[in-house]
Design goal:
47% of the residues lie in helices and 15% in strands. It contains 17 helices and 15 strands. Helix 11 runs parallel beside helix 13.
Length: 584
């Protein structure tokens, strides 16, 4: 009964392993993902590395890097390309990767400063947000609907007065009526400001043209519209629940010197406090005086970041002194902090220099992937050839384990691509190839322990179990060191080297689980067969291969030691008896 326990345990373990593999591919079927996500060096695209610079040469605060990443991510998403990524690398770098995008287009997009401006609202209209395509979160403030009231920043706290905004009707405020005359020919909109900018009064009193009204009524959130400082702008809020017809810029975001979120003294709700420089103070005072005299929604000003309305508060009185407070409406702790960060870092919060630009064409990426696959097949073939030559029949365990490792690794990489966005790149393929050697090393340690146990006089069944106990610690130690090195490399490396470290770590963990739940149970079951149990020729356990005599090996494999056959029983007693009888 005791000898069958390892066999039963091995069978259950292999069945459990098969169930896990089936579940792995079941998840792939549920997600509808059957191929791994590829990095730009394998499918083609552009990768730009930006390095943050500070005046004193120190690393910028992490908050600044994250805000810059958010703004750049929003810009890259506006290209409409899928699977573009913007990540913070190390303490001072941001990596931008976009597939199938030219380097010039991506450099122009991420190398410019974000545009943060204040524009007067001419008309506003509620729209139905899309339900099929979710808008990616950018970390900016949730736009308000124009119900927050700026107030003076003197010693008297803001009263937090709000201007009610109707929500039951689809249209907010008057929309300029279309003329009844035949429409005039459409003219292309300017893409650059005029040489002589209009005065602040002209910008505040801008009257929309017939073309402005037509474009506003036909505009859909997500459409392109030129963002020119002295021209009108049509834009939507982040949630795409409202669209705005905005006048020319009346105040640049560069005039905001500080913005902070908090609960003003004597109030219970969160607010965003703004500070302006001297020029901004005068411009903001004149603008709010003109807006306060108008009716809703034309008494609102929109805070626009990269063609998106972040907030559109209303004005009830002139705001002088260079201080303002935005409160009421949808302003809460989360939106207040985010809006303050957006106003404070509307322009990129750090100076970024382009350190490197790497462009890979789809053809070159395909060639590199083919070369990586060929290299992996060659490495796999060499390991199999070595195992056949040296271990002979035991190569069945090697091939079976390598096939199981390939199946599990493929499934894990595919699922990681859909779950956490892991993209397999060329260094990652190199990590998979390195894992073949790590897996082969585990086989060598285990097989040699078994062979040593047999040479020492133990049976095959005993050698498999005792050899595993002795090899297990060595295998776990080797894989543990490899896994630790991969983790350290992942956190210290930047760029594509992270893909190598991540893949090495994943494949090393898979090897450790595989040798425990597949290789050892499979070897236990093979040890019960006659071919391996009797040490037949070609099994890898035959006497010629182990360097011992066949008689000695057969006894060890059978679990017994050869004993000398006993001779005939002594007959001295009989002779004595016969002699006695004859004497009588």
């Amino acid at each position: 009964m005791a000898t069958s326990n390892p066999t039963q345990s091995a069978s259950r373990t292999l069945i459990g392993f098969g169930v896990v593999v089936a579940m792995l591919f079941g998840l792939m079927a549920l997600t509808g993902t059957w191929v791994p996500r590829l990095g730009l060096d394998l499918r083609g695209g552009t990768t730009i590395t930006l390095t943050a610079r500070t005046s004193d040469g120190t690393s910028p605060p992490r908050e600044n890097l994250e805000m810059a990443r958010t703004i750049i991510q929003q810009r890259v998403d506006s290209l409409g390309v899928g699977e573009a990524s913007v990540t913070v690398q190390g303490n001072d770098q941001i990596e931008v990767a976009a597939p199938n995008v030219s380097s010039d287009e991506l450099v122009a997009l991420v190398g410019t400063t974000a545009r943060l401006n204040f524009r007067p609202v001419i008309a506003a209209q509620d729209v139905t947000p899309p339900v099929t395509t979710p808008t990616p979160s950018t970390g900016d403030a949730t736009p308000s609907t124009g119900d927050a009231t700026p107030s003076t920043g003197d010693a008297t706290p803001s009263t937090g007065e709000t201007t009610p905004t109707p929500t039951s009707t689809p249209q907010r405020g008057p929309v300029p009526a279309l003329p009844t005359e035949p429409p005039a020919p459409r003219t292309p909109r300017p893409t650059v400001p005029a040489a002589e900018p209009p005065s602040l009064e002209e910008r505040l009193n801008y009257e929309p043209t017939e073309q402005d009204v037509e474009d506003f009524l036909a505009f859909q959130c997500g459409d392109e519209f030129p963002d020119v400082s002295d021209q009108p702008l049509i834009a939507c809020n982040e949630e795409r629940t409202a669209k705005y017809l905005l006048g020319p810029v009346v105040l640049s975001g560069e005039r905001v010197t500080d913005a902070s979120a908090g609960i003003p003294q004597g109030q219970l709700s969160w607010a965003v406090s703004l500070s302006f420089d001297s020029q901004g103070t005068q411009e903001f005072s004149d603008a709010t005086a003109a807006l306060a005299a108008k009716q809703s929604p034309q008494n609102q000003f929109a805070i626009v970041l990269d063609r998106q309305v972040v907030s559109a508060p209303s004005v009830s009185e002139r705001i002088a002194g260079g201080q303002a407070s935005i409160s009421g409406g949808s302003i809460n702790e989360t939106t207040a902090r985010s809006l303050a960060a957006t106003l404070r870092y509307g322009a990129l919060p750090v100076d970024l220099e382009i350190s490197s630009v790497d462009t890979v064409s789809p053809t070159l990426g395909g060639n590199q992937m083919t070369a990586g696959i060929v290299a992996g097949i060659i490495g796999l073939g060499l390991v199999v050839a070595y195992s056949v030559i040296y271990y002979r029949g035991l190569s069945v365990v090697v091939v079976g384990s390598l096939m199981a490792a390939a199946v599990v690794t493929y499934g894990v990489i595919v699922l990681l691509g859909s779950a956490v966005g892991f993209a397999l790149n060329l260094p990652g393929i190199a990590g998979v190839i390195v894992a073949i050697g790590v897996t082969a090393d585990s086989f060598v340690i285990y097989f040699e322990r078994i062979r040593d146990e047999i040479r020492e006089g133990h049976s095959l069944r005993h050698a498999i179990q005792s050899g595993w106990r002795k090899a297990r610690g060595t295998i776990m130690m080797a894989d543990g060191v490899q896994l630790l090195a991969a983790v350290v490399l992942y956190f210290l490396a930047i760029g594509s080297v992270k893909g190598f470290a991540f893949t090495v770590g994943v494949t090393t963990a898979i090897d450790l689980l595989l040798v425990i739940f597949f290789t050892h149970p499979l070897m236990t079951l093979l040890g019960q067969t006659k071919f391996y149990g009797e040490g037949r020729k070609g099994s890898g356990l035959d006497p010629e291969h182990l360097g011992v005599s066949r008689e000695s090996l057969l006894g060890r494999l059978a679990g017994t030691r050869r004993r000398t056959r006993p001779g005939p029983k002594p007959t001295g007693g009989t002779k004595h008896a016969v002699g006695t009888q004859e004497a009588k």
